[in-house]
Automatic annotation (TrEMBL):
This is Sugar (Glycoside-Pentoside-Hexuronide) transporter. CDD domains: MFS_MelB_like. InterPro entries: MFS_2 (IPR039672), MFS_trans_sf (IPR036259), Na/Gal_symport (IPR001927). The keyword Membrane applies. The lineage of its organism: Bacteria, Bacillati, Bacillota, Bacilli, Lactobacillales.
Length: 456
């Protein structure tokens, strides 16, 4: 293949089947990961009978360990060279371990004391951390290698986000009803069977994605040493901004997901409303589909800021409507539309920071940059998103399966409603600085293609 053909290939328009298959990766990931992020704290405290403070600490420690593992996963991807590409083979290799480890995390053996805490910690690290981090790393790392065409990247990422939200919708809407159906009063058995079914579906989706996807952008056939990967971060200011803002954003996202159950059960008096809250996450598909159009009218940075603003408005509205169910649903739905819009953008923008890193340092490190920018941020943010609220609940005197005091109810409301608003404002302040670097992207792409021609 000559230089011109390589340039055309690298800028290829992605087939619809490939975009759909890309959506399967995050659909599979969320079938299992959202089960953990939404229900593991509830499972630990109300099913496995672990104190809330201990459960929060387990999740924090596990997520910190997992966040560190993301760095190593990024380096592993940059060292990977197979006939299938750098990232794609991991969809095949990790499918079964991912499903099995998540199943074990939601299994509650007859253990006590330290043994119970160790089991919970180890299985959570394996499922939500080491293995899922590998899945998440490769989902993000493959995007910059699918094509250099920025519009195609945005389009593919929109498909991915739709898949992510469908997976989240299925998990959030049907987990508790399925637990009740299969468990028949025994939530331990109900969780085991439900997660096993989700795991089988995830395996099928990941293997299908492996079969139908293709990496087109040429990468060095030499393994990239870890020190070289680090050099791709030197002077990569847009990457710094995305890492800080995305990690902070995920504190709010994990907080909203995990505390919907508490808010529904203790403040609204109906635990099953959590399934309604989580099921409404599917409305985020509207946001994901609209992203390419909004980006064309504005830009990527403005699209994320719009999402943060809408999300903050929806959250604030929930504080004003009290227990009025229709207005609670309306407020939550607005928040979902905004958070989905804001959450989608960093995944697409990370691909641009890979290009910036190569333009700045001459080193292309998609594995490392996207691993830290996505999996690391998600794990670190999710850890603090569970730990911070759990400490607030512990201080407020919240006791599982009991009528809560006024102080505990106020703490639940603050964690579920106002903490995300505060975090959205912080993230928006950080992202204002990204616009300068987004304006440089056309020139960066042209320079990279010119360098490729010179090397030939």
């Amino acid at each position: 293949m000559d230089v011109k053909e390589e340039e055309v290939e690298a800028n290829a328009k992605l087939p619809t089947l490939e975009k759909i298959s890309y959506s399967f990766t995050d659909m599979a990931g969320n079938l299992l990961y959202v089960s953990m992020s939404s229900y593991i704290l509830y499972f630990y405290t109300d099913v496995f009978d672990i104190p809330v403070s201990a459960a929060g600490m387990i999740i924090l420690i596990a997520c910190i360990v997992d966040a560190v593992s993301a760095i190593f996963w990024g380096s592993i991807v940059d060292h990977t060279h197979t006939k299938w590409g750098q990232s794609r083979p991991y969809f095949l290799w990790l499918a079964v371990p991912f499903a099995l480890s998540t199943f074990l995390a939601f299994t509650a053996p007859n253990l006590h004391g330290t043994a119970k805490l160790l089991y919970a910690g180890i299985t959570y690290v394996l499922a939500a951390g080491v293995i899922y981090t590998g899945i998440q790393t490769t989902i993000s790392a493959i995007l910059p290698n699918l094509t250099l065409n920025p519009n195609e990247r945005i389009g593919a990422n929109s498909y991915r986000m739709v898949g992510s939200l469908i997976g989240s919708f299925v998990t959030s809407t049907f987990t508790l009803p399925l637990v009740a159906f299969f468990g028949k009063g025994n939530d331990k058995h109900g969780f085991m069977i439900t997660i096993a079914l989700f795991g089988i579906a995830a395996i099928f989706l990941l293997i299908t994605a492996f079969k139908n996807m293709r990496e087109r952008v040429p990468v060095s056939q030499k393994s990239l040493p870890f020190k070289q990967s680090l050099k791709a971060t030197v002077g990569n200011v847009p990457w710094y901004l995305l890492v800080i803002s995305f990690a902070t954003f995920w504190i709010a996202q994990a907080d909203r997901n995990s505390f919907s159950t508490y808010y529904a059960k203790y403040n609204l008096g109906n635990a099953e409303l959590a399934a309604v809250f989580n099921g409404l996450q599917v409305l985020g598909i509207i946001s994901s589909i609209s992203i390419p159009f909004i980006v064309k009218i504005t830009n990527k940075t403005a699209t994320m800021l719009i999402g943060l603003g809408i999300g903050a408005v929806g959250q604030a509205m929930m504080a004003l409507v009290g227990g009025n169910f229709p207005l609670v649903i309306l407020s939550w739905s607005i928040g979902v539309l905004g958070s989905a819009l804001a959450m989608s953008m960093p995944f697409a923008m990370l691909a641009d920071t890979v290009d910036f890193g190569e333009w700045k340092s001459g080193i292309r490190a998609p594995g490392f940059l996207t691993a830290v920018g996505s999996a690391f941020c998600i794990q670190l943010g999710s850890g603090f998103g569970s730990f911070i609220p759990s400490k607030i609940l512990d201080i407020s005197g919240c006791v599982a399966n009991k009528t809560q005091s006024a102080q505990a109810s106020s703490a639940i409301s603050f964690c579920f409603i106002w903490l995300p608003v505060i975090i959205y404002a912080i993230v928006a302040g950080i992202m204002f600085f990204y616009l300068k670097y987004e304006k440089m992207e056309p020139q960066i792409k042209d320079d990279l293609l010119a360098r490729a021609e010179t090397r030939k």
